[in-house]
Amino acid sequence: MHAKQTTAPFSEYTPLPGTFDEVFEARDKPREAFAATVSLINAMGAAELRTRQRLAGKALLTGGITFNVYGDRRGGVERIFPFDVIPRIVAAEDWEHIDSGLSQRIRALNMFLADVYGDQRIIAEGHVPRDVVESSTGFLEKMVGVRPPGGVYVQVAGIDLIRGADGRFLVLEDNLRTPSGVSYVLENRAVMKRVLAPVLSKIDIRPVDEYPSRLRNAISSLAPERAGDHPRVVVLTPGPYNSAYFEHTFLARRMGCDLVCPTDLFVHDDTVFVKTTAGPQRVDVIYRRIDDDFLDPEAFRADSLLGVRGIVRAYARGNVTLANGIGNGVADDKGVYPYVPAMIRFYLSEEPILGQVETYHCENAAERDHVLQNLASMVTKDVNGSGGYGMLIGPRAAPAEIEEFRQRIKQRPRSYIAQPLVELSACPTWLGDRIAPRRVDLRPFIVTGRSTWVLPGGLTRVALAEGSYVVNSSQGGGSKDTWVLQR
Amino acid sequence: MISRVAECCFWLHRHAERAESMARLLRVNRSFLLDVNLPEFSRWWPVVIVSGEQERFAEQHPDESARNDGELVQQYLTWDEKCPVSVIGSVYWARENARTIRDAISLEMWESINGFWHWLRRGQGRRLYGRDRDAFYQRVKESVALFQGVCHNTMLHEEPFDFMRLGMLLERAGQTARILDVKFHLLGPSTSEADSPVEAAQWVALLRSCSAEQSYLRRHRRLAGAHVARFLLSEPLFPRSVFHCLERALNFLSRISKSSGRGDASSEKLAALVESVRVRAGEQLTGAPLHEELTRIIDTTMDVCAAIHRDYFDPSLPLDEQAA
Fold first, then answer.
1. Mean pLDDT of B283-296
2. Where along chain B do its domains lie?
3. Do A240 and B99 touch (CB under 8 A)?
4. What interface predicted TM-score (ipTM) does this complex get?
5. Angular region, A399: left φ>0, alpha ψ -120 to 50, beta rest
6. Among residues A15, A185, A448, B30, which one has the fewest Cβ atoms lying within 10 Å of its Cβ?
């Protein structure tokens, strides 16, 4: 036992066959850019790594870096998002490619939103079918003709990237409404500085800490004109029992602005006010973490208890800036996703820098037939599903599940897309007694105000179960710190 | 500041103060019972009364003998999550308020209260409770003291801080008044100035329940019921006396009123209460008059809290009135 503890943690590491390994080219052969990190961790030894992994868990718990799981009698149990001390590392030149690809994609998606809620040129010119847009549950008729300040709809985006067997980064999905997870990026780094300082001090990586001030500056730059030089910015949360409440408090604290609940706000004369101990005060910019549907019982779901009555009117009048804008769901609809490369070509006259996963939309009869014939080898997704729910992974599904999806697709073809199974890349991961390859994805965050900025790194989620492809925290996923190497 | 956040600041510190006060009370009572031989009904039941938990406790433990069961009472006032003033209940609510306003409190405060909560909740606290009860209550007191100290040393001393102190001081004033009042309720009014040895031990226990023994002895050489009562009620420089707490609370409330430009009603009420306690500071109150005075103070403090609520936590909205 003792002999095993003092061995180098990577000494028995074997990459998964047929899968791109983020760190190792082959057994005992780390990629050149990562060799230094591997040898530093090896020098630390397995016993030390185990201690440091335990310290990380404790730091996360004391720090309350948790998400809420519903169902407990007191409104929810808090869990830490399992964290792995082995970092995911991205080489500098890979990052440059990702950075420019994401900026390009966000520019196009913003222009798409401005267009579908404006003149709808892209539809008129036949690049995106009208019914694909209009049948999207994210398309909000009421928002047609409303133009947000600066024409920016997507101030914050989280775009999920995966890496196929050939190592190419591909866009898996766009999250343009209220993407979450950025607090873990910052907290994971803070924890790594505590527990892996000997390694971090010798590896030159790009910092992530400026995210909150970048976000605040970006959304402040889009404030209504009357707000002047010092707009009042607030973060709007559904409340303490929301699963991402930790993140909402984290962002408010780090952005240096107030965190408010819907009941703290009210609308008078198409202007949003916050109730303070000094009386009502005008609010100019709201970074809101409440979905469109629940935002305003007057405009959308009348049964919403989370909303602020009249806020949509204030927004439409240009009296308050909302980040993100209302109606973004049409642009991150999984049924609209296949058309994003066409958007990039149409609006920017550029070729897409980042590839994406080949996608079949079941609404199209020919594509549907292909999907129905190949269900057993494809990944099929409900276009309205998220968090790893409403998904069929053909090669791993029982025949009965496949049959069930076949029936569902036939009943509601608009609701389903299918993609070939991508062999997600794997990253060395500490399993308590050894390091083994586990599959990962990457969610970078993109902030847009008067210009666009990509947070160097992002949230690496890892499927902790052996052989699993599902990285979602609700389904046994964990996270890693993501290191983007300095050039 | 946001009204809801102000309310959370206020309650965060009320609950933290309650946890500390409960731990102190239970610890002192344990040691007191080792010194004197009391009839069973006077051993633990007074502690339940001071906590205002007679009804809930009787509901959960209808058997009369439960009142005399020291272990049961301690268990209830320490660990019962349904009891809002139990140690664990108070810490739960303190932490819940802290969690709600994490962005408004310092990181150190959050880590302090959150670490304390996990210590209580995850077995370590229970193990210490089973092994060394005194050390457990001591640890609770220290954890709250740490939390309050960290707050004092890491927060900007502006409005949120003022609401925290206000909550802590009003809670503390009420606790001291209630502890003093229980003497009337169960131990009966003092019979004479020359108190019996048992009674003297009770007065010492009372002082210890307020961490006041040493301070008292610096002011008075002799233990006498009337002196103890006066000390806990009106000694201006003792940090747990009713008068001191109320006067300090008024200081914070005045600051809040000034910085927000509102809230005259609550400040005026509190100022009147402080003045009324000051005026009677020279009187040697015992027995029924003391009970009446304490009842008046407790009730008026509750009125003040209601006025603070109206002034700051749930103010009417002038804009709505215009619209109507």
1. 86
2. 1-154, 157-315
3. yes
4. 0.81
5. alpha
6. B30
Q: What is the mean pLDDT of residues A447-460?
A: 96
User: Across chain A, what does the average pLDDT equal?
Assistant: 91
Q: Do A277 and B320 touch (CB under 8 A)?
A: no
Tell me, what's the pLDDT at A152? Answer: 96
pLDDT at B322: 43
Pairwise CA distance, residues B235 & B212, whole Å: 11
Res B77: pLDDT: 97
Burial class (CB in 10 A: 0-12, 13-18, 19+), B161: buried
Q: Is the dihedral of CA B33, B36, B38, B40 positive or negative?
A: positive
Boundaries of every domain in chain A: 358-420
User: B140 and B20 in contact (C-beta within 8 Å)?
Assistant: yes
Contact B6 A63 (CB under 8 A): no
Amino acid A166: pLDDT: 93
| Residues B4, A261: C-beta atoms closer than 8 Å | yes
Pick from A416-420, B34-38, B72-76, B144-148: least confident: B34-38
- Per-residue pLDDT of B301-320, as tens digits, reads 999 999 999 999 987 776 55
∠ CA A91-A94-A97, nearest 5°, is: 150
CB atoms under 10 Å from CB of A203, counted, come to: 16
Asked if A277 and B115 come within 8 Å (Cβ–Cβ), the reply is no
Q: What confidence score (pLDDT) does residue A385 get?
A: 67
Q: Inter-chain contact A275–B118, Cβ cutoff 8 Å?
A: no
Comparing CA positions, the residue from A278, A320, A331 lying closest to residue A296 is A320
At A435 the pLDDT is 93
pLDDT in tens, A224-248: 999 999 999 999 999 988 888 989 9
Q: Which residues of A touch B320 (CB under 8 A)?
A: 266, 268
Q: What is the pLDDT of residue B187?
A: 58
Q: What is the DSSP string of B48-70?
A: HHHTT-HHHHHHH--SGGGGG-H
Our CA-based measurement puts residue B207 at a distance from the nearest CA of chain A, in whole angstroms, of 36
Residue pair B280/B271 in contact by the 8 Å Cβ criterion = no
* Non-local CB neighbours of A247 within 8 Å, separated by 6+ positions: A180, A181, A182, A183, A184, A289
CB–CB contact A249 B103 (8 Å): yes
Distances (CA, A) of B197 to A34, B35, B191, B194, B255: 78, 10, 13, 9, 46
Architecture of the domain delimited by A358-420: 2-Layer Sandwich (3.30)
- Residues B5, A250: C-beta atoms closer than 8 Å: no
Cα–Cα dist A435/A456, whole Å: 26
Q: From CA A199, how far away is CA A96, in angstroms rounded? A: 24
A339's enclosing H/E stretch is none
Which residues of chain A are within 8 Å of residue B318 when distances are taken between CB atoms? 279-280
* pLDDT tens-digit map of A262-305: 999 999 999 999 999 998 999 999 999 999 999 999 988 888 77
Buried b (16+ CB within 10 A) or exposed e, A54-91: eebeebbbbbbbbbbeeeeeeebebebbebbbbbbbbb
- Show residues of chain A in contact with B5, CB under 8 Å: 258-259
Under 8 Å CB pairs connecting chains A and B tally to 90
Quick check: B180 and B229 in contact, CB under 8 A?
yes
| Predicted confidence (pLDDT) at residue A154 exceeds the cutoff of 80 | yes
Please give the Cα distance from A87 to A37 (Å, whole number).
9
- List all residues 6 or more positions away from B109 whose beta carbon is below 8 Å from its beta carbon: B98, B147, B150, B151, B154, B155
Closest chain A CA to residue B106: A253
Token couple for A276: 């303070």
Chain A residues in contact with B6 by the CB 8 A cut-off are 277
CB neighbours of residue A370 within 10 Å: 14
**Please, what is the Cα angle at A460 between A207 and A61, to 5 degrees?**
80
